[in-house]
Amino acid sequence: MPKPGETGIKRVYRATIYSWQGLSATWRYESAFRQECMLALLLTPVAFWLAEDAIQLILLVGVMALVLVVELMNSAIEAVVDRISDEVHELAGRAKDQGSAAVFITLALAVFTWGAIMTENLTRQGS
Q1: Which of 7, 27, 61, 70 could cross-link to 106 by cystine, CB 3.0-4.6 Å?
Q2: Burial of 124 (0-12, 13-18, 19+ CB in 10 A)
Q3: Which helix (H) or strand (E) holds 74?
Q4: Is 78 part of a structural domain of the chain?
């Protein structure tokens, strides 16, 4: 049974509004998200210069987008935990730490991806 509410284009419109509200709130309240967005804006032109083919470009830009997606999810987890209670609780701390770990692993993946492609391409150019 479908959920009650709008369907079709009206649902898509509402979903788009909610998505923009989420992006706006994350930009406003999360400095890490702003920093990662600025880094992505700076690195995207570099990705076009560095990539030797479409696959490399997708990897370079895609891994930056993945960092932003995981940061959005981490921010959502933190907001829900903070909304439930401001008391220190082991499970709340664990949830926040796990969200942070997800961001850390994604950032490490981004560094590894960029480093591997840069090394491969710049070494090949030197040969």
Answers
A1: 70
A2: exposed
A3: helix 54-84
A4: yes
Residues with catalytic function: 71
Q: Are 51 and 64 in contact (CB under 8 A)?
A: no
Q: Does the pLDDT value for residue 2 go beyond 70?
A: no
Q: How confident is the model at residue 48 (pLDDT cuts 50, 70, 90)?
A: very high
Q: What is the pLDDT of residues 49-98, one digit of tens each?
A: 999 999 999 999 999 999 999 999 999 999 999 999 888 899 999 999 99
Query: Domain range for residue 67?
Result: 31-126
Q: Is residue 101 part of a domain?
A: yes
CB neighbours of residue 91 within 10 Å: 9
CATH of the domain at 60: 1.10.287.3610
